[in-house]
């Protein structure tokens, strides 16, 4: 049963309105739509919707920031502003879980999924999700309580291209509400949920920040999906991939590669060579 649409709408930007196919870009936890600033030029062939998710930046007033509530808002945005009322959904980390929640609840709105850093939680990421207070204070110490220029320099050592404006937004988004609301759904999300995805799905892990072992299991799970009639899942190039040089947030590490991967996936073309299928 489709939930009623939220009363309040997400703040978002819309790009390339004249293009026929819509892609919606869902940012990670604590960031905002500015996360995709360097990627937008590489997706100029598509209509792009780029929202701030609940409890983040210009959508900070929208509560709660739970995964399922956020997915309802994304669904409303797709129905109201995506061409044809459907979109290819791209999500990074928290945005990837929201994308999968949307695809599980309202698959009719999702043309395809491209998610990274959003496999079932395991290892260190599972530990952080189980202890949200640790995540909160870790983010405060790494980002919130240091000068923006210092964090920008530290991030650059990992190859991350972070604008000062984005870092300032991140500082404001590191709140207890975000941490409290983000993790419950993620903790419950497992391989059985991956198996229930009814849309064409690409899962990516950055080997220098994500659990590659879990991505192998996620890839196996995607291959094991069955149709409603019990037959094998059709060959639609769904699967799990790893970027050996990628960190968890590799979209701000390799924005051109990220844009090229999304473009190839949406168009059904061969993915860039850096995408290693598992």
Main sheet specs: 8 strands, mixed
What is the β-strand count? 8
Provide the residue-averaged pLDDT.
Answer: 93
Number of helical elements: 10
Task: Estimate the global geometry from the Cα principal axes.
Answer: globular
Radius of gyration: 17 Å
Which series of helices and strands comes N to C? EEEHEHEHHHHHHEHEHE
Task: Indicate the percent of residues in helices.
Answer: 25-40%
Strand order of the main beta sheet, please?
A: 1-3-2-4-5-6-7-8
User: Structural class of the helix and strand makeup?
Assistant: alpha/beta
Residue share in β-strands? 5-15%
Spans of 5+ residues with little confidence (pLDDT < 50)? none
C-alpha termini separation: 35 Å
Give a written overview of the molecule.
The chain contains ten helices and eight strands. It is an alpha/beta fold and 278 residues long.
Please tag this protein with its features.
278 residues, alpha/beta, 8-stranded mixed sheet, 10 helices
SSE layout:
Elements: E1 12-15, E2 22-26, E3 47-51, H1 67-81, E4 87-92, H2 94-105, E5 110-116, H3 123-130, H4 132-144, H5 148-156, H6 164-173, H7 176-188, H8 191-195, E6 201-206, H9 212-223, E7 239-243, H10 255-267, E8 276-277
Parallel strand pairs: 2-3, 2-4, 4-5, 5-6, 6-7
Antiparallel strand pairs: 1-3, 7-8
Helix pairs in contact: 1-2, 4-7
Domain AB hydrolase-1: 22-142
Protein name: AB hydrolase-1 domain-containing protein
InterPro entries: AB_hydrolase_1, AB_hydrolase_fold, AB_hydrolase_sf
């Amino acid at each position: 049963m489709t939930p009623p649409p939220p009363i309040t709408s997400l703040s978002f930007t819309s790009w390339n309105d004249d293009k026929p196919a819509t892609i919606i870009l869902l940012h990670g936890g604590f960031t905002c739509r500015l996360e995709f600033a360097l990627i937008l030029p590489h997706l100029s062939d598509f209509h792009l919707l780029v929202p701030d998710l609940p409890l983040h930046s210009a959508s900070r007033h929208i509560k709660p920031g739970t995964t399922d509530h956020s997915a309802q808002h994304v669904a409303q945005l797709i129905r109201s502003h995506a061409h044809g009322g459907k979109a290819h959904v791209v999500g990074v980390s928290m945005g990837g879980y929201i994308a999968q929640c949307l695809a599980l609840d309202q698959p009719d709105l999702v043309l395809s999924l491209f998610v990274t850093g959003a496999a079932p939680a395991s290892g260190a990421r599972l530990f952080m999700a189980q202890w949200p207070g640790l995540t909160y204070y870790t983010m405060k110490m790494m980002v919130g309580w240091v000068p923006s220029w210092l964090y920008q320099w530290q991030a650059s050592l990992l190859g991350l291209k972070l604008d000062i404006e984005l870092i300032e937004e991140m500082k404001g988004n590191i709140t207890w509400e975000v941490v409290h609301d983000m993790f419950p759904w993620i903790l419950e999300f497992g391989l059985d949920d991956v198996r229930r995805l009814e849309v064409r799905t690409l899962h990516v892990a950055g080997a220098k920040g994500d659990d590659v072992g879990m991505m192998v299991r996620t890839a196996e799970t995607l291959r094991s999906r069955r149709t409603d009639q019990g037959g094998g899942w059709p060959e639609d190039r769904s699967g799990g991939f790893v970027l050996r040089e990628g960190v968890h947030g590799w979209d701000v590490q390799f924005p051109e590669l990220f844009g090229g991967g999304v473009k190839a996936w949406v168009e059904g073309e061969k993915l860039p060579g850096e995408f290693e299928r598992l």
